[in-house]
TrEMBL record:
This is Tetracycline regulation of excision, RteC. InterPro entries: Tet_reg_excision_RteC. It comes from Mycovorax composti.
Length: 273
């Protein structure tokens, strides 16, 4: 199960990355991404219904971690689509609208705080109630959504996990929009970044994690904006790109690893001269 899930997820992430890098937000692009995610979920469902699970542990792993990793993307992009298509004109109106969207996320958090604590604390004592099909307990924070879903491919709480993951991304997206009015505008540099946006995001977060700017006190947003200005690139929603990097199980530091390899190769070549 893990193998087929990773194949579907990695293929989906790669395709989304390619679409994200082609242009900024557009309704058509987001619609395309949503369709791709729905198809990926359909493929995953077909596999599950045909092959089932080897044991209880595999089923819990799937509904607690693997399925939510994909469903969360559907929730996120659907939310972005709705925000961008419903967003009003005018700076004040937009700010009020986005603030209300943030309040919706907080309301979900407040209404599900017990499950947030359970999930984020990596607890497992209720996993068989939450993440095994047909084991729902009406007393354990059930959503109406569950009763309308296909119980062959869902448990009482796998969607809630996906919602938690997605809401973190949605919050970052909205806050980035709210902060966009305060970003500094710099003169264009003569240097142009020609590697991918993902590569720059990986580099920025690596430098930020190492604390190389202002003794580790520099804000990640300021670092990103400085890089964008210095190298004539628009990173767009770089927080979301970082979340995608975190989600990868293989080569999460692919660009940084390639930098080390390139530098070592350069040193070795010079030593041979």
């Amino acid at each position: 199960m893990k193998k087929i899930h990773n194949e579907i997820l990695n293929k989906l992430i790669t395709t989304i990355d390619e679409l994200e890098f082609e242009s900024d937000f557009s309704i058509q692009k987001t619609e395309t991404i949503i369709k791709l995610i729905i198809q990926s979920l359909s493929d995953l469902k077909e596999y599950v219904l045909k092959n089932g699970f080897k044991n209880t542990d595999e089923e819990i792993q799937f509904f607690k971690y693997q399925k939510p990793a994909i469903v969360s993307k559907l929730i996120y992009y659907n939310a972005v689509y709705k925000i961008e298509t419903k967003k009003p004109y005018g700076e004040k109106q937009t700010k009020n609208f986005l603030t209300k969207e943030l309040n919706k996320l907080k309301k979900f958090f407040d209404n599900n705080i017990d499950f947030y604590k359970y999930y984020r604390s990596n607890n497992s004592f209720l996993d068989e109630n939450f993440f095994i099909r047909g084991k729902h307990d009406i007393r354990l924070w059930l959503d109406t959504f569950y009763f309308e879903a296909d119980h062959r491919f869902c448990t009482s709480h796998d969607y809630k996990v996906a919602k938690i993951i997605a809401n973190d991304l949605i919050q970052v997206y909205i806050e980035d929009k709210l902060n966009s009015n305060y970003r500094k505008v710099f003169d264009n540099s003569s240097l142009n970044w020609t590697a991918s946006k993902t590569a720059m995001t990986e580099l920025i977060y690596g430098l930020h994690s190492k604390g190389v700017f202002d003794n580790g006190n520099a804000d990640i947003k300021l670092i990103a904006k400085t890089f964008e200005s210095a190298f004539n690139i628009d990173l767009g929603d770089f927080y979301h790109t970082f979340m995608e990097l975190k989600a990868r199980k293989i080569n999460r530091t692919k660009f940084l690893d390639s930098l080390c390899e390139a530098l070592i190769k350069k040193m070795d070549e010079q030593d041979e001269k």
